[in-house]
């Protein structure tokens, strides 16, 4: 039984950290919108076709109300003992300001690419053949695609601005289905793989619950893996590798759980299938897969227009296909049984268990 004082302290600490994060990133978004408005006024209408949708688009008020629900759920998870009061580990003020500078400095380049439709700048003689062609694109129109250190250091600010400071809270919803299968077990005897680990934010939260859990983080970007290594250096029992989701360098039936956050909407349909087949191969029978990614059409019908607009404004070549992909059916083809989906603001946690054959 938690005392009222302890409960109040937790709530105050949670509110103080999360509200200041939201204010910081909403502020960035506001400045970004004003800058782009000024550029549009200066340059006039461009030749680029305007993003359009006939589906419903939520108003900002609705988005913020739903975001508040996400934070309430996040706090409820803390109070239920599913995870501790989260530490976002955003770094010092100096680091935050440096990242803000990187973020704002790149906006004119993002704007130029969006207007010109240039999205293959990272497909060069130097990179060709070293990564799959689908990977060598300027996703989100960002400079360097996934390939540079600056991109890796800018990424978390970009994502938090996009989600108004809620990206980490969305990621933490992936911890709930992990807690279900890990609770009461010896963490040192378990194994978890995070695919497309990026800068390691989810792994950080996993380690805050299970510091001794052996974790492998896998990503196709040297720069993002290096950034994850820096971000996660406080934790032991970690192995970060540069590899493809579709050919995972781990033995069959070796993992108790796989997590994969914000990756599948960036993969071509064929690669999504290959990755699911690999997940099924490396999971132990009974092992759990947690896919956290964008909502799809119909999950939150009032958001459908926003989902349709997103890839028109950011370079997301595989997102339209992702929106209609039937993941439960696809996963079942590989012996991964769908357990449930839970919406988390603009994200969705999809849970699957590897079928145990008798
Ligand atoms: C949108 S980011 C998501 C990163 C992270 N999971 C997060 O929570 O923010 C996508 C990441 O997936 C990686 N990626 C893309 N295609 C991949 C593939 N085929 N195999 C492994 N990683 C891949 C990129 O390098 C990038 O770091």
Entry summary:
This protein is of the alpha/beta class. Helices cover 46% and strands 14% of the residues. The protein contains 12 helices and 7 strands.
Walkthrough of the structure:
Helices cover 46% and strands 14% of the residues. It is of the alpha/beta class. The longest helix has 40 residues, at 4-43. The mean pLDDT is 94. The structure holds S-adenosylmethionine. S-adenosylmethionine (SAM) binds next to helix 7.
List the helices and strands and how they pair.
Elements: H1 4-43, H2 60-79, H3 93-116, H4 149-162, H5 167-172, H6 175-182, E1 192-195, H7 201-209, E2 215-219, H8 222-231, E3 238-242, E4 255-261, H9 269-282, E5 283-294, H10 304-313, H11 319-322, H12 327-332, E6 336-344, E7 347-354
Parallel strand pairs: 1-2, 1-4, 2-3, 4-5
Antiparallel strand pairs: 5-7, 6-7
Bound molecules: S-adenosylmethionine (SAM).
S-adenosylmethionine (SAM) binds next to helix 7.
């Amino acid at each position: 039984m938690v005392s009222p004082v302890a409960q109040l302290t937790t709530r105050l600490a949670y509110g103080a950290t999360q509200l200041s994060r939201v204010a910081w990133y909403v502020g960035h978004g506001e400045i970004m919108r004003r800058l782009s408005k000024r550029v549009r006024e200066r340059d006039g209408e461009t030749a680029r076709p305007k993003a359009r949708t006939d589906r419903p688009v939520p108003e900002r008020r609705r988005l913020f109300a739903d975001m508040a629900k996400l934070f309430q759920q996040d706090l409820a998870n803390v109070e239920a003992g599913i995870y501790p009061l989260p530490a976002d580990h955003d770094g010092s003020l100096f680091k935050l300001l440096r990242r803000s500078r990187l973020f704002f400095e790149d906006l004119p380049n993002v704007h130029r690419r969006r207007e010109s439709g240039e999205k293959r700048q990272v497909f060069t003689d130097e990179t060709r053949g070293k990564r799959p062609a689908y990977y060598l694109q300027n996703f989100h129109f960002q400079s360097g695609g996934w390939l540079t250190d600056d991109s890796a250091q800018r990424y978390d600010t970009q994502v938090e601005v996009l989600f108004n400071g809620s990206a980490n809270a969305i990621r933490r919803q992936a911890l709930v289905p992990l807690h279900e299968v890990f609770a009461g077990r010896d963490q040192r005897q378990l194994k978890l793989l995070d695919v497309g680990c990026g800068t390691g934010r989810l792994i950080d939260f996993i380690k805050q619950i299970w510091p001794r859990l052996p974790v492998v983080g896998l990503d196709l970007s040297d720069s993002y893996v290096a950034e994850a290594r820096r971000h996660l250096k406080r934790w032991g029992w970690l192995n970060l590798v540069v590899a493809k989701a579709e050919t995972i360098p781990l033995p069959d039936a070796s993992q108790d759980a796989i997590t994969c956050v914000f990756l599948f909407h960036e993969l071509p349909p064929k690669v999504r299938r290959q990755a699911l087949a690999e997940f099924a191969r490396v999971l132990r029978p009974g092992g759990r897969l947690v896919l956290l990614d964008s909502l799809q059409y119909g999950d939150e019908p009032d958001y459908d227009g926003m989902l349709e607009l997103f890839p028109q404004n950011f370079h997301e070549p595989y997102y339209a296909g992702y929106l209609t992909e039937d993941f439960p059916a696809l996963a079942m083809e590989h012996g991964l049984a769908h357990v449930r989906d839970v919406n988390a603001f603009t994200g969705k946690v999809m849970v699957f268990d590897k079928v145990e054959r008798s």
